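In the design runs reported in the main text, the only information available to the sequence generator was the tokenized backbone. The following block is the verbatim input for one such run; it is reproduced so that readers can re-run the procedure and compare outputs position by position.
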């Protein structure tokens, strides 16, 4: 079964400590998800998430420009952040792979 993401109700967020004093919250505005769920053999299920690094958004343009730079994400050289699962797993009766 191919799982379809509802992008209007989905987001990828991150929170990091800033100078050990405060936390900075941000998100990535552009991403795609491809999830192939094998309900009979959950371990064979796969998920691939691709995030456009340049779409980082902390609601501070100056900070976002710095985050896109080679100091952090290096979005020009590495435009895509990719996550690929290795397998699915059933955790318990209500939380599948």
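Verbatim output:
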């Amino acid at each position: 079964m191919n799982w379809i993401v509802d992008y209007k109700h989905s987001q990828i967020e991150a929170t990091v400590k800033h100078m050990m004093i405060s936390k900075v919250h941000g998100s990535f505005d552009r991403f795609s998800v491809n999830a192939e769920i094998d309900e009979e053999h959950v371990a064979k299920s796969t998920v691939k998430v691709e995030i456009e690094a340049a779409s980082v958004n902390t609601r501070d343009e100056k900070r976002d420009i710095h985050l896109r730079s080679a100091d952090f994400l290096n979005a020009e050289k590495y435009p895509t952040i990719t996550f690929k699962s290795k397998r699915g797993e059933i955790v318990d009766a209500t939380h599948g792979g």
